[in-house]
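Recall that a protein's primary structure is simply its ordered list of amino acids. Everything else, from secondary elements to tertiary packing, is in principle encoded there. The following example makes that idea concrete.
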Amino acid sequence: MKVNLEALKDRAGWEKAGVKLPAYDIDLMRKKTDEKPLWVHFGAGNIFRAFIAALQQRLLDEGLSDRGIIAADTFDVDNIRMIYGGYDNLTMSVTLNADATIDKEIIASVSEAVVAQPGEKADYERLLRAFAAPSLQMISFTITEKGYALRGIDGQYLKVVSEDLANGPEQARHAMTIVTALLFHRYQAGKAPLAVVSMDNCSHNGEKLQSSILEVARAWNANGFVPDGFVSWLTDESQVSFPWSMIDKITPRPAPEVQRMLEEAGIEDMAPLETPRGTFVAPFVNAEKAQYLVVEDKFPNGRPPLEKAGVYFTDRDTVNKTERMKVTTCLNPLHTALAVYGCLLGYTLIRDEMKDADLVKLIRRLGYQEGLPVVTDPGILSPKAFIDEVMEERLPNPFMPDAPQRIATDTSQKVGIRFGETIRSYLAEGRSMDQLVALPLAIAGWLRYLLGVDDKGAPMQLSSDPLLEDLRAQLTGIELGRQETCGDKLQAILSNPVIFGSDLTACPLGERITSFFLEEIRGPGAVRNTLQKYLCC
């Protein structure tokens, strides 16, 4: 059996293979979505396929909605063409349970998948039609935090952004300029209201998205491309809203072991692959069972009843507290600490790291002792219960094929939130930083990781990061076993507020991080020795 519309007609065969199928008429759903689009999503990667698309599938299955999602990607054309186009916009979704069993389901809620680039004329015309439709209630995003960035580490506009601002809406190429151009089209088509919803895993995601879109719109207004009324429309929350959200679901790269299980069940053509842009994709997605999506309930044109699928709708303050709880304390900092040290210590699976007493001590202290004192209880979720679930069920899940190498991707874009927020909280509350051990160890571990040499002294491949080349250049000359080669090379990184949110050299933490780093470059085995030395009790 193959994942395509024709094969779905053999319902008995799929049932025998233990695969849950859509309970609705896919063709009818696609027809209705084409006529009156409801929802466009940008960033058609694994988290969207495993989580967001599955939410709408729940509504479709239960008769609570009759339309699907238009998936769009501004970045990876190959993902759209190969993974969506090659499989009739269907996804094999695999849930990895803590008891090492899997649940299989075909997700069909994506009505169509398009490339969101003006150069792809047919696809872009489809998006223009969708944005002009009064029926469109929301557009959402999972494009990663860096997808919202208009400027580089130097504070200057990225080259593509600078060109887009000078050339206007019709020639947009950056994700934020493309979306702003599409919003301008909606404005011209009748100014119908719309919710613009970031579902990315970053602090104040709605604010980041809004800020970037408004910056583009104002620049185009100043350059004469769009009228004042467009900017006014974007800033009127009764017309265009930018709800904040918190999302949580671990969705690792497609795992060969899951592929084998699918093939053993008689499902063909499941081989994972890497697109030319470095995205790991497959006809299937694998993800943990636990999932959370908390969204500010601000939708000026209505919304699907996603609360029926388990989404929490609340006010902005509660979203912010929930997001802060997760991103800065209860999960993401633990993940990043495990990622960099896992790479240094030769691990390829997070679940195996959870059998390492030193690493468990590191993240336990990071979460419970250093993070919880400055986290605010959001009310709808308990921070301690959240960490308990992470420590006891989610990270040790024997079936989660998540890799530290995946989580280490783009760490420079994450440390300011995952570690910097806790540091700022300690400073703001006047708390002593003497108790911070795991946090500076985590930062020192990241700097040690950037050397590209593991704890045995062997070269290791580093995960992609937009600042990787610049950061490694600043660390050039530091040699394992020769502490004197470090000098003051860490200062430029530690003092950079763009990376950490503040100048770490201006507080005692900078010295502690440097001290830990120096210990970790003593020689082979120094990383392990440093962890054991400072996490001994």
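The radius of gyration is 23 Å. The mean pLDDT is 95.
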